[in-house]
Amino acid sequence: MTSRRPAPAGAKLQLGSLLAELAEAVGRGRADVRRALNCSEPKARKIMSGLVSVDPEDLVTLLDLFEADDAARAKAAELAAAAQRRSPRTPGGSPLRARVYKFEESAIGISSYATELIPGLLQIEDYAEQLFGASGERTPAQVKKLVAARRERSARLVSPDGPQLHFVLGEGAIHWQVGGPKTMAKQLLRLIELQDLPTVTIQVVPFASGVHAALGYAFTLLLQPAEQQDRAYFESLFASKLIHDKATVDGYRRRFAQAVEHALTPNDTSDYLATVAARL
Question: Where does the DUF5753 domain lie (predicted)?
Answer without folding.
Answer: 99-273
